[in-house]
Amino acid sequence: MHKTKFETDQKNWLDDLGKKRKAEEEERRDAARFHQTVSAASEQLVEAFKSFTTPPAQAKTMGAMVEHKMAMMKKQIMDEIGAEMEESNKEVKDTFTSILDLLRNKN
Fold first, then answer.
1. Is the pLDDT confidence value at 96 over 80?
2. What is the model's pTM?
3. Distances (CA, A) of 66 to 36, 55, 70, 72
4. Which of 4, 22, 62, 82 has its CA 20 to 30 A from that of 37?
5. Higher pLDDT, 10 or 50
6. What are phi and psi of 79, to 5 degrees?
């Protein structure tokens, strides 16, 4: 069947319009996929920042362990100083007692 120029032009125009609509639909799908990809990447980035800014539970536990160890070491040092001071005080007291005894015996 022979078509007129108008019919041919109209068919070509409709074909072009269909191609453009198909291309636009594909662009929308690509944009939606890109948006989903960006959204997922953003969520991962947020989670990564959270993990960098939130100290792990181990850090808190380690901090508590270090503080406990420091307190124990301080107590041990203070106990040792106290024992040495008692011993030193006993020696001073014994020395004074000996001196007093010597002075009493001379008189």
1. yes
2. 0.41
3. 45, 16, 6, 10
4. 22
5. 10
6. -65, -40
- Structure tokens given for 53: 């800014």
Chain segment 44-65, per-residue pLDDT in tens: 988 888 877 766 667 678 778 8
The two structure tokens encoding residue 16: 């072009």
What are 54's two structure tokens?
Answer: 């939130």
| Alpha helices in the chain, H assignment, sequence order | 5-53, 57-106
- Give the per-residue pLDDT at 65: 87
